[in-house]
Amino acid sequence: MNEAHMKALRCPQCGKNLHLNGGFTPGEEIVDGQISCEKGHAWDITNRIPSLVYPQIRKEDAKWIAEYDEMAEKYDELVKQYSEFLGVDLMEERSNFSQFIPIEGPVRIIDVSIGTAANFMALYDSFKKQMGRFNLHGMDLSTGMLKVSQRKIDKMDFDVSLTYGSVFNPPYQSNFFDIVLHTGGINTFSDIHGALNEMLRLVKSSGVVIVVDEGLSPRMRKTDKGRGIIKANKLFEARPPLQFLPIKAQNLEVSYVMNETFYQMTFTK
Question: Which CB contacts under 8 angstroms, 24+ apart, belong to 189-192?
């Protein structure tokens, strides 16, 4: 963890700015340590990742997190099987997020459920020579997924600031990011409205929130293939959670991606 990473964060308990106990020296990266706010709420840094989960996770969410922890090391291989099942290259489809990237200038992006960092790997494939203009942040409630993300990112020629945090109370400054991204997971969230509201809080007024998860298009639902997909995995029966959109969300667009097997919602504020 470095000073730039910390400046993007805020205390998840009270919302105040954070500082490193003992202070930073120029260019220093903290592997293990502790950060705290002016009210004295303290949070540990372990292996460069600050732990900023507050409040305690609900039981219904903890169940899914445990599943992700268990499959983390084999998750990328499972995604390949998923791609074959759906008849689409999910990794290649992720590169379509590049359409939301400004043509030039600095860009702040957060993946609020980073998983194994697949979205940022796709970003790297599209912008290899421009990675210096990206300020990338990844957050997850699965420590297993964060571990895999960190290992993959360390092998690449770009940086991502990783945080152990909750999508229901992300420990980041408001109006900070140009793009807030979430792919996969929201269908199972215990508080979808709360998560979407927090994503909107994080994005700048000039930015965009992108939410993608399993959910067949109306056309695909009527096909034999679509019915077979839903029979095999009930998550694909989900529909875009429009009823949970924040009141202040604007410019909503709903489309279907990945061979019409995932819905995509984009909105601004």
Answer: 189/61, 190/58, 190/60, 190/61, 191/58, 192/241, 192/244
The answer to whether residues 267 and 200 touch, using CB atoms and an 8 Å cutoff, is yes
**pTM check: above 0.85:** yes
Cβ-contact 25, 4 below 8 angstroms: no
Amino acid 49 reads I
Per-residue pLDDT in tens (0 to 9) along the chain, 269 residues: 999 999 999 999 999 999 999 888 888 899 999 999 999 999 999 999 999 999 999 999 999 999 999 999 999 999 999 899 999 998 889 999 999 999 999 999 999 999 999 999 999 999 999 999 999 999 999 999 999 999 999 999 789 999 999 999 999 999 999 999 999 999 999 999 999 999 999 999 999 999 999 999 999 999 999 999 999 999 999 999 999 999 999 999 999 999 999 999 999 99
Give, in order, the Cα–Cα distances in Å from 128 to each of 29, 60, 102, 162, 181: 24, 39, 15, 20, 20
Question: Taking the alpha carbons of 93, 250, 58, 49 in that order, is the dihedral positive or negative?
Answer: positive
Q: What is the H or E stretch that residue 19 is in? A: strand 18-20
Task: For each of the domains in the chain, give its residue range(s) and CATH number, in order of start.
Answer: 1-48 (no CATH), 53-268 (3.40.50.150)
Reduced to 3 states (helix: H, G, I; strand: E, B; else coil), residue 227 is helix
Provide the terminal-to-terminal Cα distance of the chain, rounded to the nearest Å.
Answer: 30
Cα 60 to the center of its chain, rounded Å: 19
CA distances for 93 relative to 2, 70, 127, 204, angstroms? 32, 25, 15, 25
